[in-house]
Amino acid sequence: MAINKVVANAKEATKDIKDNMTLMLGGFGLCGIPENCISELVNMNVKGLTCISNNAGVDDFGLGLLLQKKQIKKMVSSYVGENDEFERQMLSGELEVDLIPQGSLAERCRAGGAGIPAFYTPAGYGTEVADGKEVRVYNGKPHILEEALTADFAIVKAWKGDTAGNLIYKATARNFNPMMAMAGKITIAEVEELVPEGELDPNFIHTPGIFVQRIFKGENYEKRIEQRTVRQKG
């Protein structure tokens, strides 16, 4: 019997996201972010969100849109340097921020999806990142204990998916999306192309459909370039 996890659009996919929930949002910079779902969260005006994301978008795009409307209570991120409103809210104390080394953030999400409660890593030892955390020495090197991350909802963006929720990411968009897709109690996937179950080559699927509860075909993707660098003519 065919499995069908398709919902009509972002509005239907996110309809039961409530105030004060924890969300994971895939993407790296502005690459591979779930644009449709973020726009819908802005329209819903949900408040008090804890957002786990590699970064906080820019002032007028991505998670920056939620920051503008003061919908985010806490950001759990590894890089936040492109967002002036984020900086203002953090320095004024309006926004709670947990900055995590990028590799540790990725592994904490992956561990959450794999059912691993915590792990030791040398990253962050000797810095504020290690404050209050257990330390053990392995091979003569101090490691700190980092706990796994999970979320009420994981919201990801893929290039192609099928009706059973199997996902394929394209190029750099295969960043935080795969591990976050595993770590949500409910995972929502928006895709550029949606095909019937069985049309994707199993050898190239990055996220198996067992991790995805809702999927829909997104529209009107801007795919902005965060920093464009070109050579001078001549």
UniProtKB/TrEMBL annotation:
The keyword Transit peptide does not apply. The keyword Lipid metabolism does not apply. One of its GO terms (molecular function) is CoA-transferase activity. It comes from the Bacteria. SUPFAM superfamilies: NagB/RpiA/CoA transferase-like (SSF100950). InterPro entries: 3-oxoacid_CoA-transf_A, CoA_trans_fam_I, CoA_transf_BS, NagB/RpiA_transferase-like. Pfam families: CoA_trans. Coiled coil: none annotated. Keywords: Transferase. Belongs to the 3-oxoacid CoA-transferase subunit A family. This is CoA transferase subunit A.
